[in-house]
Amino acid sequence: MAGVRDPEATKARIFEAATAEFAAHGIAGARIDRIAREARANKQLIYAYFGNKAELFSQVLERRLIELAAANPVDTEDLDGWIDRQMAYHAAHPELVRLVFWEGLEYGTGGIPHEKERADHYTRKAAAFVEAQARGEIDATIPAADLFFMLIALVSWPTVQPQMRRILIGDTDDDRERLRASVRTAARRLIGRDDTGRDDTGREAPPAAAG
Q: What is the pTM of this model?
């Protein structure tokens, strides 16, 4: 008796195989036949589900970004914790930033598929900084979207450039912890808090959230 087809399980295997393939080779270099082989799926079924390779890449990246957002929501009150969790996530899932950078290399300054949905995704995340600035909890000198962009760069660059981090910073546990501490310090200064937790006016910053 033939096994019962499970479309969701098949799609999950395709997403996993496509993540690895796109992270290693980008959009142009990825091969649907390799994805199909690793996913134990029919090549034509991948086209039926996703239409084409670019659409599959777009959906894979969108899912990975949603997973990150769910695993580590932006927390302006516990900025140190958010920084640590973000860096730990990227270290454990380096494929995400690789996908993002492949997208940048291949699409450049032109539009990307589903750009409005991506813009909405980042706008929702940046909203935490907009609201914190409106409440006076963080400095508003740097516009919220710019601030969020700069923080993303701080937490992701060690994963984007592991060789530079290893050569310049070092590769021991102590080196990595020192870098995390430096990123936390830089992030606090960007939002107008000093190392004591006070903002630039001398007021106590809001207490850090638990967990």
A: 0.84
Query: With contact defined as beta carbons under 8 Å apart, do 190 and 151 qualify?
Result: yes
Backbone conformation region of residue 129, classed left if phi is above 0, alpha if psi is from -120 to 50, else beta: alpha
Read off the tokens for 22. 């796109």
**pLDDT band, residue 195 (cuts 50/70/90):** low
Distance CA 188, CA 194 (A): 6
Angstrom distance (rounded) from CA 11 to CA 74: 29
> What is the CA angle 95-117-152, rounded to 5?
45
pLDDT band at 196 (very low <50, low <70, confident <90, very high): low
Instruction: Tell me the C-alpha distance between 117 and 134, whole Å.
Output: 25
